[in-house]
Every structure is written in C-alpha cells, then in structure tokens.
Amino acid sequence: MCALRIGIVGKRGAAHAAGFRAHPHAEVSALCEVDPVALEREGVALGVDRRFTTIESMLDHVDAVFVATPMHLHASQALIALQAGKHVLSEVTACVSLDECQALREAVRSSGLTYTMAENYLFFEENVIVREMARKGLFGKPYFGEGEYVHDVKPYHHFPDGRPTWRTQWQVGARGNTYPTHSLGPVVSWFEAAGESARPESVVCWGSGVHTDPEHPHDDTTETLVRLSGGGLVRLRLDMMSNRPPEEAFYGLQGTHGVFESGRGRHGGGQVWVGENPPPGPVKEERREWRPVRDFADLVPPPLRDLQRQAQGAGHG
User: Fold this and answer.
1) What does the pLDDT look like over 164-177, one tens digit per residue?
2) Is 317 a domain residue?
3) Beta strand 233-239 with 115-117: parallel, antiparallel or unpaired?
C-alpha cells in the first residue's frame, strides 16, 4: 500500500507530524507556512524538503491536507483543498460562520472526499472509556451531559510587540461560545454511542459580562444549553478570561442507570457510579458505589488502545 502523502498547512501543525508518522501508511511530504523564517525552521526540524508559502502551490505534491492555521482560515483552506481533490483534516473550529458551514458541507458532499474535524478531546483516555461504557449500555439511557473548557488565554491575545493576534477578533472579539468543540464533542459522542439521536437542535447561551479584560467584549464565562434531537440536554461552560488555573477537560454524563464525572484537576481521575437500579419500593438496598473510570479500560478495543499509546508518545494532538 502506498503511503498517504500529507501536507501540513500552518507552522502549528508541525506538532502533529510525529502522530502522522506513527501510522505505517502515512508520511509528511510537504509543509506550507506564510512566514518564511518559520517555514525554514520547521521544515529543517521535520526533515521536510518540500516547502511552500501558499496552499495552492503545495497541492500537486500531496494526497491530503492538514489545516492547522488560525481558525478563521480553516474553512477557506479546506475548500481549496477539497476543490483540488484532496482529503482534509482540519483543526478546530471547522468554520467561523454559518455561511462557511453550509459551503463546507456542500463541498464535502459533492467531492466524495474525506473531511474530518480534528477534535482531539474525543480521544482522551477517559472519554474513550466512557464512550465504550455508553455503547455497552452501562449508563442506561443518557439524558444529561456537561462539558467545560476553562483556559485563561489572555497571554495569547497580543504579540510581544503589542500587536493583536488573530484571537482578539475570532475568539474574544465577540460575545457567546466561540470555542465549543472541546466541551461538546465528547458528550455528543457518548449519546450517539448509546444509540441516542444527538444532533444539536436548539441552543441558548448566556454570558457573565466582562470583568477581567475590558479590552475585549467576550464574557469572562459563558454557559450554553444545548437541546439534542433525541431529547437530551447538554450544558457547556466556556471561560477563556478568568484569572484562575486551567480546567480544560471537565465532563459529566447522567443516565438512567448511572453517572460519570471527570475529576477536577486537583481531585484526581474520573469516577463512575453504574449498575442495575434497585426495584421500586420504600426501602432501597443500593449496591452501587463510585469506581475509577479506568477500571473499565478493558472495554476499549485493543486496536484503539494501541493507537492511544502511539498518540501519547507523539506530543500535542
């Protein structure tokens, strides 16, 4: 089998090269970056000789494109690659407007090519275990989930010389949940694994107001409620402003037979409380108890466990 030739667009994508190279049928064959200094530095570090400053000039040399540029460029660059007959793996978020979402959907459907949004939080070890537990029915019917992404990114809003970065407009230049995929993706996957319809059907978002960084209109904290097509309810918290330590991966899932709650950063790993419900009656003999979610790691198929170990050794992503 010939190796899939992957072209990385954006210097940040260089961090994923080891992950691609861990697959026996993939190779990093080209690198694209508008900054010639960064292009030279990363190209030498990765041992990639084919280097380009535009995505268009790179496309003849690759079979698939990994888009790892600032998020407002993701959709337009994915469209260029799809229209040239290339598969696409895109960093989050996929788009920054509904018009981009519609254009991207139509391009994927008409091309017949593979497009994937690289939501890596889906593959965190605990999240994978919970997905397999949901698939086995251990939570019963899920009806509530929650996810939080709390990460103070104020230091990334400006370059050292004071100029604003892309984040000032596209992440914190507007109110609302501008970065939902890390918190939403795993939860939706658990509902789907349990056989529930999990398409977001209605969304409402509230903000706390601006308190710590008045330069930008983005609320310090937003709370988003998502009603899924199957009736489930999901709560999301996004906080990229508050003065506090990061808590980038808190999740919960409630079903008719039990619950999962991931550990807060200072409280250790995630816990589950699952099992058969006691029969109805005035006195309930409860036999369930909290257990580490990793007690159920054997539910994860061996091939996926092997890929997880490879990914853990490949760095970010």
Assistant:
1) 999 999 999 999 99
2) no
3) unpaired
